[in-house]
Q: What sequence folds into this?
């Protein structure tokens, strides 16, 4: 009998009705003959409510205590789901992270899983029980409760699937799967039957947040197949897996976009070694991640430097850059968040030159100005004006024939 | 340096402001030079809200999962109190029941503490930290989270105090201490500076629920002094301890009353061996505890039997008794919850005959009819009409000079 690990996110267990629906879904999976481990996130707003309490106390900085506090949310949803399964006649047992043997380092609030002691889970599975594990949490070597940071429950699920040698890790969420483009914008967008780990990683980091990149990296490392699918629909989802021949004939798998971009420009930067280091280490100290960078030699000994960051970080970055401008003797700066990133992704790109050129042509035809370009082996990203995003992704979707994915 | 264990109940930590106030109170205790372990209950309504979720799911019968669910409430308040202490400069660490080493049997929802592995608590105390323990919970030998049932946090606190050899266990609550009578009814009621374990047990079981009887029994067994005091006042409370000479000169320590009584009468019960057994074992099977019983021989071979139960159980008891009446051939039954129990308690009573008689006289003078009587070595209880309670306890309070307790 095969084993399946299922993960249900916070929106899938937000309330009694949804928890009962999730229980029915799990029951039908069990009826297909699978052994089942379920990983759950906290119900809907629970984590936000706990954060609000800590903020009210006036101290959300003691990360050890914050983790002890936040981990209770998943413990509650796990127990409630076990009760719901029990009610419909499925033997079930809820386990906290530490009971499930999820070990982590002590890096509170963003701990990394260091190993899984699967003994307890195997014992309960052997006893014929559905094991419901509180996601997002682990236990440090000191015996303290940790949380795994953003997307931690996805990572819990994949790690548990890897340790138990599960046939598949099913990530149930509020979308039907991974699409060739955002279906809210591109009507012809197709659900992909499968996608490679690398493509999914690019997709996720480029704005299509369906599953946390950390979980995909983990799955890639341990060769676990992930299926992303809708909690409340019976349609198959998208399988994230190794490259297969079937997939390689497609050059471009999908079009992604990210409107949470901001661009900062610095004018007349002296062309001396170490200047870029000053700028970007100042930003790093302020906790700002820089995405794309271009440096353009305008005239001798003076350059312009432009880079993009997440628009949420703009208020942090601007004062830092203003300081740096004075320090390095640049002539000024500009910034704005009216930019967006549009990307094409495809594992087949590696062996097909000319894909980037085709993308630039499409944008030119649509009269869209490209402000920056960044490429990797399996993606090409362009920074464009935010107003042009819809036109761009529709045109790219057509150009690369992504509406024919299921033909 | 002495060690103190403090326990704060749900109403003392119901909300951010109260948690911050509790933190200040603990800080001033620490300033007096004590090492401190704090045991907390869940915030105000948390437990009720979790119960409501389980009821909504339609399954609150799987006690293992109910315990896993409910235990999160105390974990949250412990973490929040640790955050509040941390904010005002007190090094603090929250521990769940299992982290604090509280071991129990597997009797979910009303588990009994089987031992305490004090290693982790001692390590944190040695490191100068205030240890905040989630009350009401333990860990079974199978590694499962249990809850200790009603008043479990009081019991956690006393057990931890016993295991750590604490100087005192302070139970902070929403009353100022133990009074000679309910101060809402008897204006002259005095706060007792001290009371013996036995007296407190009688008080508690007779309706003055300030601390759970189980916790008092535990304290008596291990010789732990308990102080009951108000969370939000700096007045000393009442110390529950061994009999001391000081206390023995008072014959009656307090007057207690309990209006949650119901009385059931069965008429013309055949006077055969085993009949009482039939009645009371049927009630026990229905989960109804019988308090006082009288059997009056009216005429040959037929008796009337009357007994009292908690009025909450009346709806359970009535159909059981109706069945039994038919089965044993009694002539009928009566029931009502318009009765109450009034009691006088005092360790000094043992060596002072005539106390019961004095009580009956007082009630007779007030023209109050006594329906049943029950006595133990340190208390006398009478069942009277509920409407007479106020008159009765005021008169008894005067008679036994309880307003002079502090003279």
A:
């Amino acid at each position: 009998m095969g084993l399946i690990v299922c993960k249900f996110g916070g929106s899938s267990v937000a309330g009694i009705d949804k928890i009962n629906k999730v229980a029915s879904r799990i029951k039908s999976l069990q009826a297909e003959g699978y052994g089942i481990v379920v990983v759950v996130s906290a119900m809907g707003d629970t984590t936000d409510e706990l954060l609000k309490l800590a903020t009210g106390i006036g101290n959300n900085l003691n990360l050890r205590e914050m983790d002890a506090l936040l981990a209770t949310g998943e413990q509650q949803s796990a127990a409630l789901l076990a009760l719901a399964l029990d009610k419909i006649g499925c033997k079930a047992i809820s386990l906290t992270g530490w009971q499930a043997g999820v070990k982590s380092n002590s890096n509170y609030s963003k701990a990394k899983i260091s190993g899984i002691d699967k003994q307890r889970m195997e014992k309960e599975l052997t006893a014929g029980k559905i094991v419901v594990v509180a996601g997002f949490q682990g236990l440090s070597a000191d015996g303290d409760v940790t949380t795994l940071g953003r997307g931690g429950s996805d990572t819990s699920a994949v790690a548990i699937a890897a340790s138990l040698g599960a046939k598949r890790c099913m990530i149930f969420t509020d979308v039907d799967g991974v699409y060739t483009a955002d279906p809210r914008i591109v009507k012809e967008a197709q659900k992909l039957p499968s996608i490679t780990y690398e493509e999914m990683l690019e997709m996720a980091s480029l704005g299509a947040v369906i599953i946390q990149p950390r979980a995909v990296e983990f799955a890639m490392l341990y060769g676990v197949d992930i299926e992303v699918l809708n909690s409340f629909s019976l349609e198959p989802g998208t399988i994230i897996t190794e490259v297969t021949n079937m997939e390689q004939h497609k050059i471009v798998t999908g079009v992604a976009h990210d409107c949470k971009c901001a661009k900062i420009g610095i004018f007349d930067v002296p062309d001396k070694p170490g200047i870029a280091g000053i700028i970007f280490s100042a930003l790093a100290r302020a906790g700002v991640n820089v995405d794309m960078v271009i440096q353009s030699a305008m005239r001798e000994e003076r350059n312009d430097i432009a880079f993009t960051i997440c628009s949420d970080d703009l208020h942090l970055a601007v004062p830092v850059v203003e300081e740096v401008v004075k320090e390095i003797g640049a002539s000024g700066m500009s910034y704005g968040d009216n930019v967006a990133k549009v990307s094409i992704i495809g594992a087949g790109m590696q062996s097909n030159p000319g894909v980037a050129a085709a993308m630039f042509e499409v944008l030119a035809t649509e009269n869209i100005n490209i402000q920056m370009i960044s490429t990797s082996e399996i993606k090409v990203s362009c920074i464009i004006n935010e107003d042009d995003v819809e036109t761009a992704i529709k045109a790219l979707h057509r150009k690369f024939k992504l509406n024919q994915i299921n033909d």
Remarks:
- The mean pLDDT of chain A is 90.
